[in-house]
Specification:
Helix content is 36%, strand content 18%. The protein is α/β, with parallel strands linked by helices. Residues 309-311, 314, 321, 324, 326-327, 331, 337-338, 340-341, 348 line the site of iron/sulfur cluster (SF4).
Length: 359
Amino acid sequence: MLQAYRDKALAEKAAKAIRKLAPEGKIKFMHVCGTHEQTITRFGLRSLLPENIEIIPGPGCPVCVTPAKDIDIAIELAKQGKTIAIYGDMFRVPGSRSSLNKEKAKGGDVRIVYSIRDAVKLAREHKDKEVVFFSIGFETTAPTVASEILSSPPENFSILTSHRLIPPVMELLLGIGDFEIKGWICPGHVATIIGVKAFRIFPEVYGMPTVIAGFEPLDVLLALVMLLKQVKKKEPKAENEYSRVVTEEGNLKAQKMMNEVFEVCDENWRGIGKVPNSALKLKKEFSEYDAREKFDVEVEEAIDVLPGCSCHLVIVGKLKPEQCPMFGKKCTPSSPHGPCMVSQEGTCNIAYKYGDHKK
Ligand code: SF4
């Protein structure tokens, strides 16, 4: 497995350092990023660690945490005849009673796009249609959306916002009674936007070792070495393993655009519930582009946790995908039951594709 690493010698050195720094008892670290989970599982990184060191996946898949209610609203808008533009990963995610792919099969106009720009283009080319972009994602996608909104898209364009913010959900998890995590591996791409400074609260207020990491296997291994050193010295701090990309302040231009267009609000995360200050909504001055304001849309009470699904436990790292009775049986990537099996960044999807269960 070490052959897959950019610098094999350095990877071997890092793995050796991890073994040397491993404490006596069990220790768990959490990451909050679907891309990190892909790297860790795909490259068998957990198999390089001593048995007492565990890396737990947290709520790092934006598709998985999009509330069923927002999917229900998108479905209702499709039923009303609007064109719904979505990322491919959202297509099959179940809402409370249906999904966007099922609505498309029934004749709804649901289109897969690669970016908000494609959705705006669609609106310009089809002036007779109302095009609604289902705008999901973390701090990484929000600046692009803000930039498009500031570029005066056409009148027949609007967005259904369901953006979520990573540091507030990390804070919420720390408040869970039996949370046994001893350090964070933070997502490098989120930190590229909001900077190291946004993560300083974790060591400074909560005494939690924190490392921002890149996405190559070696990045994650080095982040683990940094975390274990902090644990050993009992000196929690926010360190930046991904310094080739991430700065202390982050991308100030992107932050300015986000602040201009969005305001922070409390919102639900699928499988977690309401998280204070964890979502973005369009500011009043941009309400003409807010699908919730523009259209009259009512939905029945939403069902976030579907019968038999354990995604709410997988999302917060309390259950491994293989421990869900549906995993690999009634729930597979080709026939997913819960959101964590649909998305490429979902923990169950990743475990099914790259995990040990097939061996
Ligand atoms: Fe949900 Fe399927 Fe994962 Fe079970 S295996 S937690 S049903 S996505």
